Records
---
Amino acid sequence: MSTMKLGKVSGVMRSFGDRVNGLSKTTKIIATVLIAFFFYILPLLEPPLISTPGSDFGAVMFTVATYALVALGLNIVVGYAGLLDLGYVGFYAVGAYTVGVLTTYHAHWPFLLVVPVAVVAAMISGVILGAPTLRVRGDYLAIVTLGFGEIVRLIANNTAWLGEAGGINQIGKPPNVEMFEVPHLNWDSGTPLLDLNDKTTVVQFGISDQIPYYWLALTIVIIVLFADRLIKDSRVGRAWEATREDEDAAELMGVPTFRYKLLAFAMGAFIGGLSGALYATKTSFINPESFVLILSILFVAAVVVGGQGNRWGVIVGAALVAYLPERFRGFEEWRILVFGVALMILATYRPEGLLPPRRTVRARQLEAEIDALEEGLDEGSPA
Amino acid sequence: MDFQFLFDNFFALTITGLVLGSVYALIALGYTMVYGVLQLINFAHSEVFMYGSFAATFTIMALGGSSQTSTVGAILMLVLALGAAMLASGGVALLVERVAYRPLLKRNAPKLVALISAIGMSFVLAEAMGLRDKITRFFGLDDNFREYVTRARNNLLFPDVVRPVRLFEVGGYHVTSLDVIIFSTAVLMMVAVDQFIRRSRLGRGIRSVAQDPESAALMGVNSTRVVQVTFLIGGLMAGAAAFLFVMKYGVTRYDIGFLLGVKAFTAAVLGGIGNLRGALLGGLVLGVAENYGSALFGNEWKDVVAFTLLVLILLFRPTGLLGEALGKARA
């Protein structure tokens, strides 16, 4: 019975996917641009139910965008290459601290020059961590990376050169390109009105208005999405998939699995460092408490909840993990409790995540078809 | 690096390290057994420990223990507190198995998902304890339990019923009765569990499931039962560890499990995960190494030493110090 139901559900999903794929190329491009535009102006619209009453909506959207970026990076490591990394916050911290140290604490480099350095530093730390540990068995990797995350935080906490527990403040901002101002919408009267007192300057990276940082983060997310798609469909992406499914078989087929795992680690660290750099410049203040272990766990939760291996899925997961606690700030004390319950329910009833990768859906359809054939029923098979 | 300090306090550091290490070892047992049977990291085990520490403290509070309690009364109370802690932790461990693991095991869910579910359970358990004031108020019971639920997010002090007696001196360190009790209780319990796994019928079941779940099931081993027993034993030991911990350090909090849990897991991996004797060895080595490390580099580097040790061990001996799986233990 249950297999028949599954077959039907996935049949619907497939037809949706087919319908999207069946659209003409121009339509697809226009739709993508419109969707992207909608996300750019979302914090200006402040739509009633979605907007966060307790905290600044622009700041929340920035958090969502950085989590999405982190989730995309971690998805390469966990979803594509199948390596459980519980210390991802370590790379995030390396990125953030590089920006902190080079823009204000020990030097005064411009932000845009520091970002590549931060990203490379995170990548190097990824290779340093990965080169010895990726030979270790999968489950142990989780605990070694967890240790790494803690070591990074504790080193920052105990080293005077990195500001110790006090952290680093007045971190450099990206350069401003002031062009024009856009007003926000105000929904107080029930209908949307332009609020001319509440404007965002395009593009001014100030302190009170967080929306420009959101735009920056969103732009990077979109670029990473394109890069992610290119990599996933390339030789490298296939090598990751083969390594994840059966490492020995992949090695026998001539895939240098260790090198590809290291590459996945380095690319994950790259994106982690990038989001750390964004975080540092937006808050303009970092201390070791910004990089606690629980953050790593939330990142992994975002990837698994959304559907590891599916780039849209992990973005949805990241959005949920970052957004829900902010939306329900009224229940602030209860939010971790509720989050825990949600994780358990999701794990039990949607073990592949909210949006599983197409490969999983296909495998499930095939299984349902085979079951139906074996039982001699054909009305339930989605073929 | 302060070698002089290390040499001056060598015995003190070693003994306090062994005492803390034996607590690590008892907690590590829960991780190692669940891992041995299910190949899963029981992330909620730290909360199992935390509930035990609260149960022990609440019991002493309910019995009215204080620094004025007579010696006989204090001993009686402590025994009751130990029982309460073990019961509470065992119960929570069974709950974790029932709620966070069994539904997933039935569906053959991927490993990572079980980890997420355990993380969820861990959040729920810790937060329920941290919000116990709000929860009791919700049920209108806060007047009855005021003493137990106020300031739920703060430290809860263990009533001052323990008066350690200095027994003897080793290299300038006065070993107290408490140190001896903690160390010997921990070792005794580990030996008991080890013998249980090696000799009893249920222990044989556990070993067989650890070795090959499918064959074990074909031979008539009830694997659900085995998993339950595994969680229960781990929980009981975590409860004992929690009792010893609050007795020694005199304080607990709703989020205390996290760091201790990570340390205990480190100890389990250090000794060879899935290996009971490894858990004991790993716990003791970790406790002592941490102390030496903090003497050499300063106290703030204590945790870094622990994690670095773990990374080094995994690099040079990935199976841990003893590196034997639970299933391979000889009968």
---
Amino acid sequence: MGAFLRRNRRLVPYLLLAPGLLWLLLFYVYPGFQMAITSFWSGSLEKGFTFALENWTNYTAALSRFSGYYVRSIGYSAAATILTFLIAYPLAYTIAFRGGRAKNLLLFLVVAPFFTSFLLRTISWKIILGDSGIVFGPLKDVGLLPEDFRVLATPVAVVSGLTYDFLPFMTLPIYVALEKVDKRLVEAAQDLYAGPWRRGGTIVGIVLGGGLGLLLGQIFGYWPPFLAVGGAVAGAIIGALLISESFVRVTFPLSLPGVFAGSLLTFIPSMGDYINAEFLGNPDTRMIGNVIQNRFLTQTDYPTAAALSFILMAGMLAAVAVYARALGTEELTTGRV
Amino acid sequence: MAEQEQGVLGTPVTRRRMLQGSTLAGMAAFLAACGTSGTSPSAEPTAAPTPAPSAPPASTAPSPTQEPTPAQTPSAELNWANWTYYIDVDENDPNKHPTLDRFKAKYGTTVNYQEIVDDNDTFFGGIKDALSGGQDTGWDIVTLTDWMAQRLVRLGWLEKFDKANMPAFVANLKDTFRDRSWDPGNDYAAPWQSGMTGLGYDETVTGPLTSVKALYTDDPRWRGKVEYLTEMRDALGLTMLSLGLDPARPDRAGCDAAIAVLKDAQDAGIVRDVKGNSYAEDLKSGDAVLAMAWSGDMIQAVIEKEGLRFAIPAEGGIIWTDNNLIPKGAAHKFTAELAIDFFYDPENAADVELYVYYLSPVKGADEVMLQKLPEIKDDPIAFPPAEVRARLVAFGALSEDDEKYFNDQFASVLGVG
């Protein structure tokens, strides 16, 4: 074998790729092809399905009827991605720079929830967020919240569930990127007067925080100005007190590959998720995954389900391509200082 | 989903213990069953079941169990796909099912009994490719709900019973289940259990309720705390009853009318959510105070939370039935028939019933239950009185086109269309 490989050097990369390629071919390309065929079917389970290219109307029909669900899914997934980023970045930063000897333990804690089944974790949120559960029950008892206040069966619950589920996927890539940052670069920046960033941080914080608040308010259906003001205040405080110029100019740019990977790992699975919308939401919060599930399993409407899946896949590929172009993966992975 | 049991966390054994508090009855049943293997000659091979003279109630005498035609012998194994908590369980060993053990001993076979059915659609999704390709699904008995059984009949994906092997089924099937419109002659589906769909509510919040209209009425006591079922036939059926329509004869106009009522109630903010059997958890936690509910869930819920009630509304309730079916190409059809028949012995049926507390389709089972556990007659959910049973309606059969139409319309209630 060794001799064979030495004589045929050029085969080596292909042989190394073979298991992965075979896997993809069998479990991705082939089912994808099947799905493409299915999306051009017409008919029904009992009368039989027939394939015809004229059935491209399955796509237009699906898109015109269900486009609202794509929009909602994008909104929820974007909100979840932003929130995971806001939570994961400080977490990863702390572990990478202040973790010390506890680093491994902290990393373990980040992935610890994975030891419980996804479904159980989602259902446990129902208990925590229950109308008279451990969080809202006491608040209602002392009159801080109105009796009919609820979070379950609202978009907030769905986005919170998504945020929680994908937090490790955001934390770990950012941690890896931050871990690699050469501390001497930060010291050099500080020597060059990249110190606290009070005025700039305040302004940027107000703009970013306010904008995020406005966006989340739109998605959650709460009164947007309220969240926008809150976001602006929080942004100003964080910007003024916690952000230094060396972070903005050195550390953060160097961690962007992690942010890029983390946001893809969060956004893409969120788009297809239907468990959170099913268990934590209500009929007003269903996502495109729920529609596909209903079409496929309940209605045995395989053509529409396949067309919807394809639209989702194509849309996501396009979005990722744009995102990669905007952030420039090539440049990011090689580092830009 | 209507047939889903007490939720994941439910422990139905509590009820049995509460009512009974003894394992002696199980022992007695075991001894009684040992004596039932009579050896009368072959059964009459009638194509359609002759409406048997109603079995003498309350008799502990063995049911007309006849030995099968001698040509066939039971296979060494039998594969049965059923729902969770849907057969009796040994009090000391949750993996043992006393009635199944008796079946195994009687016929010298093994039973691979799997609690694998979570909902009809998902299970159907798992077996449809094998069936459409003419292959064995790996299951000899599958227990599925009426409407799914109807679909399988329409598709021709079920084996026809050889009733010569099923004398107890022929004799003891209750009359209401005979010659159902989608299975005339009872050739394909043998009812396993029936359950009721009615109102579940917290009486301490809502006060006593008798009308199904409460579900669609805006009332400050339950605004935003009402839940509907995701099961189309239950949700539409109850709503049709509230409109004075007959769910036994569903048509598109009735469907549209019911959907309009459901949508209006959702738009008015009366409804919190539309869900499967997790509504029971919400009733217990107080997140919901009024819901469309299944008897099987509520039997447990009313024990766990003071004030919860289950009622079949004055306008009527829905009865649904899960059926034992033999999928086309099943490897052990003969043994499957023996197993289906075995549970039409009132003794065996009663033992299952005293654990699962649904409604038995077997004549004589109720009487055996009353003998074994007289207190049960005071339990209106486990043992509904005759006037309640009279108000139950089964949702009628739908053609494929109508089923598609109903499901498509109902998707808007589910929030996915």
---
Amino acid sequence: MSGHSSGEWLLLFCTALVVLFRAFALVRTFWNYPLNHGPGFFLGVEVAPGFYAGEGVTWLKRYRTVLVVQHLVEALALGAILVSGRWGLLPLWAGGAVVFAVAILHALIRYTRATLGANPPVQSSMAVSLEARRLGDYISWSAEVLMAAVVSLCWALLLTHGNAQVHWNDPVVMTYMIVGVLPCKIGVIRSSFPLPSERTAEHYQWVEAQRRHSLRGMDSMRWFFMVIFAGYALQHSWAVANSIVWLHWLIIGIALAVFLAMMGIVIRGSGRLAAMGRELRPAVSWSGSSSSARLMMPGFSRWSAIWLGGLVLLLVFFRR
Amino acid sequence: MFLTVDADDKRPLYQQIVDGVKALIARGDLREGATLPSVRQVAGDLGVNLNTIAVAYRRLQQEGFLAIRHGASAVVSSRRARVVEEDELRKPLRTALTQLVLADRSDREIIAAVRQELEFIHQKGDPR
């Protein structure tokens, strides 16, 4: 174990945080995810009254089995990486696990949609908000400039004073994690669902809350990676930094604080969204006369898929 | 503030949007200088073609309710339609009244219906 570099220990630390977060999300969010909109829905698909007293039990059991198997596969892969000592594969595992989890959840929702909810009710009446959504109302440009400045500074440090231990794939991937999310944010702001004509204001508030929650989650993840990147740049460009033990721990402490804040934001926000949406008809449960039922905001799903695909490509490319 | 469109409505979608925006202006919900969302935003949110919304906005612009600058947002420019002939203004009213008469409504019922609609128009923020 002592043969591992400080960079690999940092990777292990990040992976431990990811594992902690995933375990928490499994228990708090995903275990009962199909029931998020109350007993009238299963994974957003409208079900008959009494569903959970009958066939719903089997559906729920099947859903949870898939969830357990998915986490077991991830755990086995992680165990194999740790035991083999190839800790450099940890970022690939983390990225792959997220893609795997998102793909499984999508497959489950799509399967449910195709079987249980093959014919969603068509609502002839739809509403749209006349509030203009401007990027500036959702994105803090000063924070974006600060992020760009820190990323540039890190690159400048590495390019001018970087030592021989710099693996250039690390700064590239971290920059991608920080900067590449901006188009996803813009996609989230620019897209929305048509709103049902009943309880329109409440549905609108829920969509707005979901939008702001997604943006906060993305931003906190970006800040987390920025702290990691700043620490990486310092350690690989300033020889003295490696001998200052407290600096090492300070960076880990800040990263941990940002990570815990991110967890807090995601957990609190998810809970509030679930409470707000419990009485509302989920967007996936109905289709409009001119639009089909939507799993999620189209801009968000499109850009997230592009971003995740890009991340996997980068990780695979650098592992070759 | 919301705009509702209905697939069962006989009017085309762009006309429903034109009428909906006009009703919001008439009720005072949309005031002069208020900014409307972009054509792209409304079309994306409703899941309809960009052209449908663009036609509606252009119609509102032609009638003097919206000011649209290329690349900028649409802004409510007036609470009044451009000056039109009295006869032109009354035409849709005449058509609606004819339909009510043909539907065998008495004058009293028609007047009550007109009064009710007027009250609705002046009732700011009514979520009907």
